[in-house]
Amino acid sequence: MTKVKIRADRKTYWRNVGSLLAVFPLLLAGAAFAQQAPAITGISHVTFYAEDIPHSRQFYADLLGWQPVPATGSGPGLRFYANHAQYVELVPPPVPGQAHRLDLVAFATNDAEGLRRLLARKGEEVPLSVTVGRDGSRSFRVHDPEGNLVEFTQQERRVLPPSTAALARRLSTHIIHAGYVVHDRAALDRFYKDELGFHLYWQGGAKAGDVDWVMMQVPNGTDWIEYMLNLPVDPPHAQLGNADHIAPGVVSVAELQKRLEQRGWKPAAGKNPQVLGVDGKLQLDLIDPDDTRIEFMEFAPVKAPCCSPYTGKQPAPSDAW
Question: Closest Cα partner for 248 from 287, 294, 288?
Fold first, then answer.
């Protein structure tokens, strides 16, 4: 009886070893892909159209406290840095008075050329090569399935830091997400999730059972892109400005409001500007001179979100410059 038991154990042992050997190459292949896939680490920048850039400078530099730097191109654009690697860029619109104010959303990567090749293999229409900027950055642009412009940027140099006093004026040091109008969620998921590796961070709606907002987090960081769903096919200017937005992160919107009021900002009469979203995070919205919404949002939720749980790490202030 003992010999029979030993033989059975040996058979089980070698059968398990064989199963592991069969799976091992797949594990190695998955690990190799994870190591070789270019990282997408967060929001790099968002470019908006602005009718009056000097007027907008007062909003982004004087009120928000972000460092203004001339754009690296030949045009009259201006960048406002929240930290050494994240900024909002304002450029003149191609058609004065146009309703659509969003030009592009850009993500940071550690390997722009590798990412360009990856998207090419997946059938996306990509440029023949990356563009090397005057600042040493390497980038390329593609269109998402709905025609929106998306850029991937590999930044090689840091913007020189401003003075300590200028750094202290920043109301936020981290742009945690950008959102824009989306009509076909499945098509955008194929692009962001299936091809680029983004994952669902949270989703919910204004009413129970609805999905109006879908947050897709970058694969190698805490920032996300937000699908703004269920809008009309051709939204009016104000509704577009509300949907196409950015969200600077803050620790406390109560402290944010105090700092805003110290700089001369006043909330609408009889209305509390601090709002608790259905995602469980407190927020305070500002509107820039071109009616683009700047959704200041606390990094961490103060209550459990409705609709679905968070599936990724929460963002935090940036200490980088």
Answer: 294
Q: Is 267 helix (H, G, I), strand (E, B) or coil?
A: coil
Q: Where are the alpha helices (DSSP H) in 208-320?
A: 237-243, 253-262
**Whose CA is closest to 292, among 214, 141, 180?**
180
Domain 40-298, CATH: 3.10.180.10
Beta-carbon contacts of 224 under 8 Å, excluding residues fewer than 6 positions away, are 176, 177, 198, 201, 215, 216, 217, 218, 312
The secondary structure of 4-67 as a DSSP string is HHHHHHHHHHHHHHHHHHHHHHHHHHHHHHHHHSPPEEEEEEEEEE-S-HHHHHIIIIIIS-PE
Q: Which residue has the tokens 């563009």?
A: 131
Cα–Cα distance measured from residue 240 to residue 253, given in angstroms and rounded to the nearest whole number:
24
CA neighbor of 108 nearest in space, from 174, 190, 168? 174
Structure confidence by residue, pLDDT tens digits, 211-237: 999 999 999 999 999 999 999 888 889
Share of the chain above pLDDT 90, in %: 77
Kindly list the distances between the CA atom of residue 82 and the CA atoms of 52, 267, 273, in Å, as whole numbers in the listed order: 21, 23, 22
Q: Is 291 exposed, middle or buried (0-12, 13-18, 19+ CB in 10 A)?
A: middle
Query: What are the residue ranges spanned by the domains of the chain?
Result: 40-298
For residue 301, which of 259, 251, 260 has the smallest C-alpha distance? Answer: 251
